[in-house]
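// run 5 | inverse folding | seed 20
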């Protein structure tokens, strides 16, 4: 059975970008594939080294994963830091990763621009750790958003290099799991300037735990343009973020209504925003109810992480033993 791996950095709460970029695809796959879902707590060190926040947000991410429907009865859910084989594989892979190729990664260049005071080696080798996360279970599919496309391409490079160097086909090349239309998802932020994310300001992201008042406030403040002036014009880039969000959370007839009124130049963005806010709230309500239930069930959270770590270590242990053997270390 094909193996699937996905993870989310434990820097705070999940937002709609995480949900539609990674979690939603995983929900379908956990029924048909052998799935591993992890909380990437080591990854968060590259930007947020704060022990108390790390502890709290790791717990929060676990709760939110499960509230979305990731089922520990079907998928293995674990914390990255519970699996010592991951950093060992990361170290081994680092020996075959070139500084030049890592320096060319777009997300590294962006971080150098955004946090010039903290350009640490972990940032540079982020794609190597991500590769270790994936291939530790010899995964073939990775449900990720479009922002991770380049990292996955690098993961395939590292896999090819490893297999070639050691004359093996032990590691399959991992590919992004795409939607039925072949596209990778990119959820835009409310400010229309790029992707929804945690690092570019809280106001442009809708978090799964945002209450209805906050959702309405954020959506009503979303950036718009001055409206269409010619009939049947394609949706302008300056407003496409709101249409993309509408398509994710609203029924097709609602989306069609706003597409029609846009085409007829009779659209009122205030109405569109109100509708979008209510549809986001309706989408979030059952998830938030589950979050409340899980927050009160400490015993279950502990059990899930303990059992997940045990199962993930079985698979990771097998990989590491094989890798050490292939590389010529005593086993
Ligand atoms: P991160 O929060 O950066 O650790 O991302 C975790 C997962 O969510 C990765 O698979 C990302 O590709 C996905 N993701 C994060 N933000 C977005 C977004 N705005 N659109 C689509 N996918 C996203």
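// decoded
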């Amino acid at each position: 059975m094909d193996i699937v791996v996905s993870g989310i950095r434990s820097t705070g709460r999940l937002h709609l970008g995480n949900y539609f970029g990674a979690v939603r695809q995983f929900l379908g796959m956990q029924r048909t594939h052998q799935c591993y879902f992890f909380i990437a707590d080591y990854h968060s060190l590259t930007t947020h080294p704060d022990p108390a926040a790390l502890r709290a947000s790791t717990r929060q991410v676990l709760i939110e994963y499960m509230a979305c429907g990731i089922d520990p009865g079907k998928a293995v859910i674990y914390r990255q830091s519970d699996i010592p084989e991951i950093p060992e594989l990361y170290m081994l892979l680092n020996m075959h990763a070139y500084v030049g190729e890592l320096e060319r990664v777009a997300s590294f260049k962006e971080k150098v621009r955004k946090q010039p005071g903290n350009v640490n080696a972990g940032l540079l080798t982020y794609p190597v750790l991500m590769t270790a996360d994936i291939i530790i279970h010899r995964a073939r599919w990775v449900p990720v958003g479009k922002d991770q496309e380049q990292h996955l391409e690098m993961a395939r490079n590292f896999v090819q290099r490893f297999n070639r160097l050691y004359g093996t086909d032990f590691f399959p090349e991992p590919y992004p799991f795409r939607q039925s239309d072949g596209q990778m998802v990119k959820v835009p932020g409310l400010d229309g300037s790029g992707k929804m994310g945690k690092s570019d300001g809280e106001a442009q992201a809708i978090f799964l735990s945002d209450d209805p008042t906050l959702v309405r406030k954020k959506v009503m403040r979303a950036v718009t343009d001055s409206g269409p002036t010619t009939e049947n014009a394609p949706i302008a880039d300056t407003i496409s973020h709101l249409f993309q969000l509408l398509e994710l959370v609203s029924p097709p007839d609602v989306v069609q209504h706003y597409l029609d009124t846009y085409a007829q130049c009779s659209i009122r963005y205030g109405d569109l925003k109100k509708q979008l806010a209510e549809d986001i709230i309706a989408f979030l309500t059952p998830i938030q109810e589950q979050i409340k239930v899980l927050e009160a069930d400490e015993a279950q959270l502990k059990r899930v992480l303990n059992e997940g770590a045990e199962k993930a270590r079985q698979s990771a242990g097998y990989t590491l033993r094989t890798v050490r053997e292939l590389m010529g270390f005593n086993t």
